[in-house]
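Running this now, will post back.
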Amino acid sequence: MAAAQGRVSEGAEGMDSTEGNAAHALPLPFRAATDALRGARLRPEIEVEQVRAPKKLAPYAYALEAAVVDDGNDLADGRLVLLHDPSGHDAWQGTFRLVTLVRAELEPEMAADPLLPEVCWSWLTGALQARGLSYGEPSGTVTRAGSHYFGGLAERAPASQIEIRASWTPREGMGGVPDTASHLIAWCDLLCQIAGLPPTSTPDASVVSLPQRRGPQTP
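Update: finished.
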């Protein structure tokens, strides 16, 4: 993932679903929310870039992909999409929605833990709460999968992966704009936690990260 560490980069492929509109035609709350995402300062282990956003989920959308990179290894990666519907959405209970996918490879002993899905979901909600963020209507899934290799790939060791798919409604502040920068930082906290990196602040004894490991590789 080619991007400046700890900051959003933009390129020709980083067009959102409103690419046919001039920037001044975008709703002001959406422009403010995306400007905040672009200005967020992240941990140096995070590499993030803007990518093409989905076109059918909302009238306006903005998408980022990020990876936790340590010593040249991808330890975890994911995508965060900001959706905006100025008319509001009954299921969202608001005009903005954040949708995410986070994934990482697991050590065998972690993959076998029956409580792992519940723990991973608590990492998401805990990351938001730790940043003092208000949100509503959370929903999602935690999936773990195992791969065994055969034939020409038989020499590879079995691998397990955890995947979190989730969405939530960020509470809107002044001007109807949510604190998207803080939501992005909290999401990156989740990425780092699932990657096994220690928190940047004083560790909380109740917070447990996965052991550091090599993460998912791009197919």
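The CA atoms of residues 62 and 131 lie 22 Å apart. More later if anyone needs it.
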